[in-house]
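As a warm-up, study this chain.
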Amino acid sequence: MDNITSRKHEQAIRDRLVNARGPPQSKHSLKRNFPAGRGTPAKNQVTSTSSSPPTLITVSDVQVALRTYYEPYLNIKRVSGDTLNLESCYINLAIVEAPYQRQKDKENLNAQTAAFHRMASYDGISRTNMNTPIPLEKLFDKRKLRDGRDDVPKTILIQGRAGIGKTTLCKKLVHLYQSGLWRGRFDAVLWLPLRQLKVFKARGLKELLREKYFQHSELDSKRLANVLADHKSKVLFILDGLDEILTDTQTTSGVALEPFLKHLLRQEHVVITSRPSGVDNSMLSKLDLELETVGFSTQNVKDYISNVLTPEDARAVQDFIKRTPSIQNLANIPVQLDVICYSWDSLSSNEQSIAMTGLYRTMVRKLWCKDAERLPKEAGAHLTSQRIQRLPQYQIDQLVAIESEYLSLLAFKGMEEGKIEFDESTLLNAMEELDELREMVNKEHLPLQLLDILKQTSFLHTADAGLDTGRDDFQQAWNISRPRG
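Now compare it with the structure written out below.
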């Protein structure tokens, strides 16, 4: 977190507490307040032993601190770098009716991935799948649970393929809570991208709260964390990306994560997101509800396009999608629809002449123009956006030639082997193979930091355990758009 954000946190909580606590107290002069006649501390009170007004930190103060913490993150960052508010995002969920459905969905995903078929869209699921759609706002309504009881779900698994919007869903849950929904049910909502556990020092809930969410003074952080930990039975934990941590349950310093992860998964109210391939039954023995996030509906696609494009371009994109069956399910995946919209102004002004090959080629080139700005390309320095705007396309191609060459090989291997996820050994083997090919034609060796560079591109979704394209269509794009010879 940068200093500006940290100062905002500090000021917000101090403004909220100053009237209640009087002048700052030494941490050695504070103790829990024991009500008369009882031997246990009041849960959300901290008082001073001095004659100054008592310090009182409540759940409301925790909510203020969390609202300030989440403020910079509750928007959607587009491929272009622009942001959209969460009102412009759409989440569609379907209930997975039984445990065997999860295995069936995983098998279907693997089969579709191997053949590079598109995943079923929301409309397709609502027409042909017996899974039951559920509005996000009704996620915590009373319903029939996995064990047959009619009750409010407390532990919910939401699965979905890469790029479908699982992290956006997490942001939306936080946004809905801050807008007043579920306030009577939860005292607070904690959204935790699980891959961050690998870099945090915390191995307990209070330490995690202080390190991640309450970066105020040491005293205020401890007080806030204590109050929230004392109320954890009314806290909704949103654990984002279970698949990104199960493959490597150690921190960067080698500390085992599994005990703390299991502790988080056993909290009273938990929403877990994961790709289907990352679900571990042994970790999720107490599930009340299984859901699948299924992408944009046809109406969502139209609304999104209208939100990000001019009326004229929006009509052109919608017409193009309508008359191009092969792109219709591609447009149901939020990240892919955004790339189409981002690339549209570089396509032919005559939309009737646009073909899939031209669209793929334009998407790839437009994304490389954006990525080139973030890659060290001039004596280790970064090019400015103004400089890149003036470069002809052939020079952009030259700038990213090595990265393009490697990704082309990786995409070809993915199509050949029927997979879109690559572990570390596959990535290194591809580098070795390409290095040997380049040596045969007297080309320079690949840079040692190539994989780190690739993590900054738009073509790979990165996780600490490896790289995942998350976009099977871009693998086709590499093979369609790359010049031969």
